[in-house]
Amino acid sequence: FEELIDLMKQKFEQRDSERKEEVIRISSMSTKIKNVKNMKDRLEIMQKTQLLNAFQYQLVEKWSKENNPTSLLNETIYQSPEQFSNCFGLIADNFNNWLVSNGFQKISDYSIIHNYVMSAIPLDLFLQFRKNLQDEDRIFYQKVRDRKDELLENVCEEWMKPLLHNKKLIEPLLNTIGAFYSAKTPIEKVIQINKLRKKADQITTREGINEIGADQQLPIVLMTMILSQPKHYMSNLEYIDYFYSSTYKIYPILVTDQ
Predict the structure, then answer these.
(1) pLDDT at residue 125 in the model
(2) Long-range Cβ contacts of 210-218 (<8 Å, 24+ apart)
(3) What are the residues whose beta carbons fall under 8 Å from the beta carbon of 168, sequence distance 6 or more?
(4) pLDDT at 217 over 80
């Protein structure tokens, strides 16, 4: 396997400069087109949903007072993600039925209901039912703290190393991951992760990296995580995975700042 990798590297290095430049040019053009399209799609979605969301919040507040839907939440939701997803489905169906009975259409984006439900299930409450996560947080934090320099050396590519001493570039990244830790619901946390990815893209562009994608984002995200003194990193990831990942595949959830 290693010989195959070495051979692939040799073949790659043997390509003439003209071919490399052409690949970079095409990749850069493709990325720019994709970014423009994504921006256009996001703007269209935001224009359509801003007023709708304000009205939906009023409806959710009225529905909540009339039906007390969070009373459907019980300790079984902590037994498995599927149990939570089932309970969330009951609450979402309750809201849709209430909408129809009041002359409104059913919702197609369940983010507002998910945020409503998760406001009753903060991370601290989840940790009461997942004591092992507190130990995982502590162990992970200690490892990152004790091996910080070694981890940064392994994670950071050569062009990234000067960033470690550039406060103007590092602070926005740390502020964003700080907002990720303090966000109250899984959706809000996912939004902050997406913001961090966008900031990583901006940095790679600023540093003259022609290709932008997951391969370029990941080292910056990992670097930021290491620098952030991640005391609750594992529990935050589990919180998102448990309550968000198990649900959005069944009930469509629109997350902005993607």
Answers:
(1) 95
(2) 210/24, 210/27, 210/28, 211/24, 211/27, 211/28, 211/31, 212/31, 212/35, 213/31
(3) none
(4) no
